[in-house]
Task: inverse folding
């Protein structure tokens, strides 16, 4: 059993969960994830690791209430436990000295891009974090993001805080203004990852996207998470989750990620209405 | 003189019409009279050849004699001397090509139904003996610690054998439940999960610890296990990587690997959705590609989930099918349709990327290939289209690359299987043994158990020698 040490609501629908797992607290690397299962009836879902504390023996997750399982996670309290948590899974993000790295994240991903930004900065890169939220109310961890980066740009969809406009458009403006960018690491919803990749392609900037596919085991056994990259089938769980955004078949990715859209509604109806 | 009955006592089964509506076990098992009648067919050969056919060398005439003599505790004892998982083996071993093939009756008529009798004894034990009646390990502790990676058939066997010899064993299992393929792969209607859990319970009662959620290669490496007080490591991680057809449009929504399809149902209980959270797409018309036991399991599972029409598509003829005859018959009785001598060429999808059909070509059989089975040859211009909404690819699996990626000094074959010494199970890395599907590629539960047994002997001998 994996105990929830603390739970905190960061902004509406987004929560921080701190869970006891001493080995993962020691072993996790930026970009990796776990597969967890809440209880007997639960499904196995992948969740990015947002932070880890070796001394406290804990790992952090930032979750967004969306599907049945994340809604259930959001309903848990300090002292509750999960029956299963396996990790750290996936290949860690490639951290090297590239020069100027843009860490771009939207929504809940602002929480788990931090380890990547931090590690990139530690490696001697100049790190710009470009964070996109719906509105002012949804902005969280501005302080942590600022600390992890050399420069922090916050943008909101409605312009109620920071700059206005979608993050990919701001990225495009940066490039058009002649800003030198050597690498982009992007996390967030598929359409945004695709938009970023489309923008950086003509500039020839390597763009690494973290693909959140539907997974079951998370260790390469089932192929649920398969994606097509450079014309080859890859398993996001073991070959990823990071891939070259310019090589990803985005149409396939978005189709496969909507596989259980109807069932998701049924499950929410069954358990939360 | 009493005449031997050359006809086996038939196995009572759930009727096809009833059983396709539930996930309960199809074969119901012998009652004690049926078991006794069947056991009496055994003529107790002085040099029993059946034992040679058993990968774990069970004293077969011995336990059968005990059934005849109504000494069930003795039958249990004899069985468990060599096999820690008899309820599982009695159900899923391919006895027809092992012990029963070697039975002297097999040449002329039906061999003694050894598998059904094994199952009878195991089930009798579950019904009559409490766990406190289990023989406790009296062997003196040897002070050796062994890490076993994977709680499937090979890992459970090696662990039980080593525990019986007085060693301290910890199994590291990647999933949230032990059993490996017994749990995620083989459906309840062929191998009930309470049987699996009971037999895993027996292994635990011998003192074996099972650590779940422990992905070796990620959470810890083999070298870390060896550095952390484990004197030996056994790798029984199986062949977890599903093979696909590598044909166009294989990533359409609705194309599953058999591993995924069965894992969703067996391990995650998607058949109880939405009470259980894991969904599965069932489909009206479903094609399962392949001819092995996993293909039969997938097809029969689809039927139970409510598919209207289920096809097995196989590129050879029924004779070459690797599935057990019993499973092929069960599938046919249940109404699975066999499309033989046909092979998919590509999948067809709609605008939204959903599977709607599969183009196949017909085949004819040519000369035997390396596997000894006749090679399927494409008949030009024979293409036809099957309207389906779900496809399950059941072509087998290859070894999971996680171990290879995280461990130095292990040698692998071109196929990705681990190189070992066949007799001992020793790998090329000192202190590391292996067995089961990671060595053989996808094979049977009992061959993995045989490998586990051989490795246990070698690990024991090596560790005791080093003192």
Result:
């Amino acid at each position: 059993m994996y105990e929830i040490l603390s739970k905190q609501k960061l902004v509406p629908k987004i929560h921080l969960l701190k869970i006891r797992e001493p080995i993962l607290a020691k072993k996790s690397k930026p970009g990796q994830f776990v597969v967890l299962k809440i209880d007997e009836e639960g499904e196995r879902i992948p969740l990015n690791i947002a932070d880890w504390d070796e001394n406290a023996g804990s790992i952090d997750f930032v979750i967004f209430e969306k599907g049945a399982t994340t809604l259930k996670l959001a309903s848990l309290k300090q002292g509750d436990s999960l029956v299963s948590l396996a990790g750290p899974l996936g290949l860690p993000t490639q951290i090297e000295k590239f020069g100027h790295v843009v860490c771009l994240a939207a929504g809940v991903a602002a929480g788990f891009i931090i380890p990547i930004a931090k590690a990139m900065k530690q490696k001697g890169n100049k790190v710009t974090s470009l964070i996109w939220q719906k509105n002012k109310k949804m902005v969280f961890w501005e302080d942590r993001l600022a600390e992890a980066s050399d420069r922090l740009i916050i943008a909101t969809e409605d312009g109620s805080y920071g700059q206005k406009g979608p993050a990919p458009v701001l990225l495009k403006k940066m490039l058009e203004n002649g800003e030198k960018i050597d690498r982009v690491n992007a996390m967030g919803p598929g359409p945004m990852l695709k938009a970023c990749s489309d923008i950086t392609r003509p500039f020839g900037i390597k763009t690494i996207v973290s693909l959140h596919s539907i997974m079951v085991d998370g260790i390469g056994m089932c192929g649920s998470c398969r994606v097509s990259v450079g014309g080859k089938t890859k398993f996001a769980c073991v070959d990823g989750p990071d891939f070259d955004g310019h090589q990803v078949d985005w149409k396939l990715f978005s189709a496969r990620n909507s596989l259980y859209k109807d069932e998701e509604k049924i499950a929410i109806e069954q358990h939360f209405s | 003189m009493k005449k031997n009955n050359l006809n086996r006592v038939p196995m009572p089964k759930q009727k096809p019409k009833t059983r396709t509506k539930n996930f309960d076990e199809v074969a119901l098992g012998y009652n004690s009279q049926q078991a006794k009648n069947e056991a009496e067919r055994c003529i107790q050969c002085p040099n029993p050849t059946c034992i040679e056919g058993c990968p774990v060398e069970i004293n077969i005439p011995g336990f059968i004699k005990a059934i005849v003599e109504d000494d069930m505790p003795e039958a249990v004892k004899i069985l468990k001397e060599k096999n820690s998982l008899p309820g599982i083996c009695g159900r899923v071993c391919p006895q027809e090509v092992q012990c029963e093939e070697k039975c002297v009756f097999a040449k002329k008529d039906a061999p003694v139904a050894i598998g059904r009798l094994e199952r009878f004894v195991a089930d009798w034990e579950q019904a009559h003996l409490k766990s406190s009646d289990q023989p406790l390990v009296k062997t003196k502790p040897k002070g050796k610690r062994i890490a076993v990676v994977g709680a499937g058939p090979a890992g459970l066997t090696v662990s039980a054998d080593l525990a019986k010899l007085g060693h301290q064993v910890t199994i590291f299992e990647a999933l949230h439940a032990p059993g490996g393929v017994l749990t995620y792969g083989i459906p309840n209607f062929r191998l009930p999960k309470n049987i699996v859990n009971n037999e895993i319970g027996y292994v635990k009662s011998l003192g074996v610890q099972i650590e779940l959620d422990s992905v070796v290669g990620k959470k810890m490496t083999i070298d870390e296990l060896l550095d952390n007080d484990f004197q030996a490591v056994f790798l029984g991680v199986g062949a977890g990587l599903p093979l696909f057809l590598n044909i166009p449009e294989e990533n359409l929504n609705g194309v599953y690997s058999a591993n995924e399809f069965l894992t969703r149902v067996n391990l995650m209980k998607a058949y109880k959705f939405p009470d259980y959270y894991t969904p599965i797409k069932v489909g009206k018309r479903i094609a399962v590609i392949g001819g092995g036991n996993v293909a039969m399991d997938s097809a029969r599972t689809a039927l139970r989930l409510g598919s209207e029409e289920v096809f097995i598509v196989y590129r050879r003829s029924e004779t070459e099918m690797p599935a057990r005859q019993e499973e092929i018959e069960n599938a046919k009785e249940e109404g699975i349709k066999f499309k033989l001598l046909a092979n998919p060429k590509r999948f067809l999808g709609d605008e939204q990327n959903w599977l709607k059909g599969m183009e196949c070509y017909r085949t004819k059989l040519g000369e035997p290939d390396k596997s000894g089975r006749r090679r399927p040859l494409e008949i030009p211009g024979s293409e036809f289209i099957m309207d389906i909404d779900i496809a399950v690819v059941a072509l087998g699996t290859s070894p999971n690359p996680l171990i290879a990626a995280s461990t130095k000094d292990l040698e692998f074959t071109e196929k990705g299987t681990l190189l070992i010494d066949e007799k001992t199970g020793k790998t090329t890395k000192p202190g590391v043994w292996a067995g089961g599907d990671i060595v053989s590629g996808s094979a049977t539960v009992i061959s993995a158990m045989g490998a586990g047994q051989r490795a246990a002997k070698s690990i024991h001998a090596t560790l005791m020698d080093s003192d």
Observations:
- Chain B has a mean pLDDT of 92.
- The first helix of chain B runs from residue 16 to 19.
